[in-house]
Design brief:
The chain contains 3 helices and 5 strands, in the order βββββααα. The protein is α+β, with helices and mostly antiparallel strands.
């Protein structure tokens, strides 16, 4: 039986490749809003981050998500990401 291909994506902070399920997608919508995409279907420019608190701290410090999405990331979005990771 043929095995299914596992979609791989790159973490915007660590630049490592992981299966899509292990990452969290952050999206800049066409209206310019920044949202967390848990379904993987929101329209817009997306960036992936590993579901790890150490990576989130590094993302805040180096502004890796801001560079990847080419906009400022509000602190509320970082708080929401932290809540999702902790669950």
């Amino acid at each position: 039986m043929k095995q299914k291909k596992i979609p791989m994506r790159m973490c915007s902070v660590t630049r490592e490749r992981f299966p899509k399920q292990e990452l969290l997608r952050i999206v800049k919508t066409p209206e310019g809003n920044v949202e967390i995409d848990t379904t993987g279907k929101i329209n817009g420019h997306g960036a992936y981050i590993k579901k790890d608190l150490a990576v989130l701290v590094q993302a805040k410090k180096t502004k890796a998500l801001s560079r990847a999405l080419e906009c400022e990331i509000p602190s509320e979005v970082y708080d929401e990401i932290k809540n999702i990771i902790e669950k």
